[in-house]
Design a protein that fits this description.
This protein is mainly alpha-helical. It contains 24 helices and no strands. It is found in: Cell membrane.
């Protein structure tokens, strides 16, 4: 059973990683096709409302359904889960279609929130067209999500993983080919090209759903055999089922759309604030860099660190429920240390090498470099919020996650315009950082209150990690300036070489310091220490 769980988790994690990997690197050809930050802004104007609507349409139900089905399957009450699945398909079809109608009809309203000045690059009609193009995906995605939840509830992660990858591949192929054909073959407008690119979400969803239908058809006989083994001793009404589901699902929704909510605040206020200080024309490309180009790069260290640290959260749950608070403290220590150990150097690395990073992924841009340089360290806060929210879920205090997120969003909303007026694009980043920081502090206080957790060890290790990062940063800066005499960071190939050499220098220094102080062994165990020793011997250090 344990090996099956590990295998299933690995398959789903691998599918998610491949999907995110593809979703990161498609921006390189896409950016080249659409030709710059202005078009990227238009793309983001459509996608931010879509992410909000898709979260409302699904309401975290698929994940909760998978847990519900798994719970009753363990009791051999298979008919309960099947009844929930069938009603869930109907419910998700209705909510998906209603969400589509709402987003389609209110597209001009959302567009007017963004476009506040005639001097801006795009009109209200342009933005409304893009929002309407992406809204069609809402018809399919909730239905598809409930099917993924059904398979996961049966401890079958393969269908979800494969459908995620197929969905992403189909979406990106349609997005890239469609945008290219519209612009470079049919010589259409950039609005038409971006509309096709956002409509790709619908095409991807159809492809992912077809994969799930195939798996369901293939496994239908086995699923029906399970129904014949149903004990029939439990009778749960649909009302009670959905009451339990929605209560547990709501916190997941808020955590899942945290980034989208912050982006929505930027979307509504950014152009307005920039227009107020006479920067209406500069607002569109700056927004594209902030919420599309830089965002894609900033998420890299967040994905790497949280995927590792979040595997420790279920262990925290088990220890907390059993009342073993010493083990909870040890696991929290490990979670926070691993998170900071991985996220801090990755975020600082992107910040220090912002110029070559931006050049490799997009183009050489002074504004892009400045924004990415400021934005990259905020990834540490993104990762900390996700993990602290996960821990609160593990100790069954997820209500405070909703509270802390709302406080952070309100701070972002109140500070965004004044900070943008003071610091322009960087002001939006500062407002985001303040909002997340306050949310994290609230989460940390709640964790301490309910687990009696002491931050003393984490504080000491954090100081050590920051010291190592300072030394690493100095080495990277020196290496970067030496390489800049021979290589041009404005050239994609040469920028890639700079990143590779500087990353190797930084990683070597960081790993060596961690090994010499035995920090790596304290966090990752004896195997990591032995690995470091072998590497050290093989290199003759």
């Amino acid at each position: 059973m344990a090996s099956k769980l590990i295998r299933g988790t690995f398959i789903l994690t691998l599918g998610t990683f491949i999907s995110k990997f593809i979703g990161l690197f498609y921006v390189i050809p896409f950016y080249a096709i659409i030709g710059g930050e202005d078009a990227a802004s238009l793309y983001q104007y459509g996608y931010v409302p879509y992410m909000i609507f898709i979260s409302i349409a699904t309401a975290g139900v698929p994940l909760a359904v998978s847990k519900f089905i798994s719970k009753y399957n363990a009791l051999e009450e298979y008919s309960v889960g099947r009844r929930l699945f069938r009603s869930g398909l109907v419910l998700m079809t209705i909510t998906g279609f209603l969400s589509f109608l709402a987003m389609y009809e209110f597209a001009p309203f959302f567009a007017k929130l963004v476009i506040t000045n005639k001097d801006q690059t795009y009109s209200v009609e342009d933005v409304a067209t893009v929002i309407r193009a992406v809204s069609f995906a809402l018809i399919i995605v909730p239905f598809m999500s409930i099917m993924r939840g059904f398979f996961q509830g049966h401890q079958s992660m393969g269908p979800s993983a494969v459908s995620q990858v197929v969905e992403q591949i189909a979406r990106i192929l349609f997005l890239l080919i469609g945008a290219y054909v519209v612009l470079h073959v049919l010589h259409g407008t950039i609005v038409s090209a971006i509309s096709v690119a956002t409509f790709a979400a619908f095409i991807g969803a159809v492809a992912g759903l077809l994969v799930l239908f195939w798996y369901y058809w293939k496994r239908k006989r086995h699923l029906n055999e399970l129904l014949k083994q149903d004990r029939g001793e439990v009778n749960v009404s649909l009302f009670d089922m959905y009451k339990e589901i929605f209560v547990s699902a709501i916190p997941f929704v808020f955590v899942g759309i945290a980034t989208s909510l912050y982006q929505l605040v930027d979307m509504v206020t950014f152009n307005r604030a920039m227009t107020a200080i006479g920067q209406a024309k500069a607002a569109v490309p700056a927004f594209g860099i902030l919420n599309f180009s830089s965002q894609k790069l900033v998420i890299i260290p967040v994905s790497l660190a949280t995927s590792f640290a979040m595997t420790l959260v279920p262990l925290v749950t088990e220890s907390f429920v059993s009342g073993n608070m010493k083990r909870v403290n040890d696991q929290l220590n490990q979670t926070f240390q691993v998170l900071l150990y991985l996220t801090v150097p990755a975020s600082l690395g992107i910040s220090l090498l912002a110029e070559p990073f931006y050049t490799v992924f997009y183009e050489h841009s002074t504004l892009g470099t400045e924004i990415l340089q400021t934005y990259a360290p905020v990834a540490i806060l993104f990762a900390l919020f996700q993990v602290t929210a996960g821990i609160l879920q593990g100790i069954n205090e997820q209500r405070f996650t909703v509270f802390s997120l709302l406080v952070g969003i309100l701070l972002k909303l109140s500070l965004n315009i004044p900070l943008i007026k003071m610091f322009q694009t960087e002001g939006a980043i500062y407002a985001t950082a303040i909002g997340y920081m306050v949310s994290i502090i609230i989460n940390l206080v709640v964790i301490k209150a309910f687990t009696s957790y002491s931050y003393r060890v984490v504080f000491r290790r954090t100081v050590l990690i920051l010291l190592f990062n300072l030394i690493m940063s100095i080495c990277v800066i020196v290496a970067y300036h030496l390489l800049a005499h021979f290589l041009n960071p404005a050239s994609k190939l040469q920028a890639l070489i700079i990143i590779g050499i500087c990353a190797l220098v930084g990683a070597s220094v960081y790993f060596y310091l961690s090994y010499r102080t035995k920090l790596i062994g304290k966090m990752f165990g004896k195997k990591a220490t032995l690995l470091g020793k072998k590497l050290r011997i093989s290199r003759g250090l």
